[in-house]
Specification:
Elements lengths: L1 H21 L2 H23 L3 H28 L12 H28 L4 H14 L1
Helix pairs in contact: 2-3, 2-4, 3-5
Length: 137
């Protein structure tokens, strides 16, 4: 009888551990996906060689945003305190997200809009920036 109780306790412990690790799987995927999209865009804005490079970077960002923006809003509304106090299993994902978000909002987006102001005749660029605004509404 003790052996059965011991085995049951071990099974319960393993299933609880698996639940705890998978509790925020969706949220981690959304947060990590948004972080990756912002990081990629920021890197592209640092390394561009032409207007075509920027248009490509904005198109790629728009593709990611179309999928991720509603999901990241959902996570943010569901867990508004995670920016300051994420669960332990999401700390590294949230640190990455906050770092990527800071660079994205203070460096990459201003650089994009400065470039766009200087190249307002570039219809493809203006179209992608307009599309970004529509996605983010």
């Amino acid at each position: 009888m003790r052996r059965i109780t011991f085995i049951a306790a071990i099974c319960l412990l393993f299933s609880f551990n698996a639940f705890a690790q998978n509790q925020f799987t969706y949220e981690r995927e959304v947060i990590d996906g948004m972080s990756a999209a912002m990081e990629k865009f920021s890197q592209s804005m640092e390394e561009y060689n032409s207007s075509g490079d920027i248009v490509k970077a904005v198109k790629e960002l728009n593709t990611a945003l179309k999928d991720l923006a509603p999901k990241i809003r959902e996570v943010g509304e569901k867990y508004p305190d995670w920016g300051d106090n994420p669960p332990a299993e999401l700390e590294s994902s949230m640190e990455r997200f906050l770092k990527a978000s800071e660079k994205f909002s203070t460096e990459s987006m201003p650089a994009l809009f400065n470039y766009a102001n200087a190249h307002s005749e570039d219809e493809a660029l203006m179209e992608e920036i307009t599309r970004m605004g529509e996605i983010l509404q």
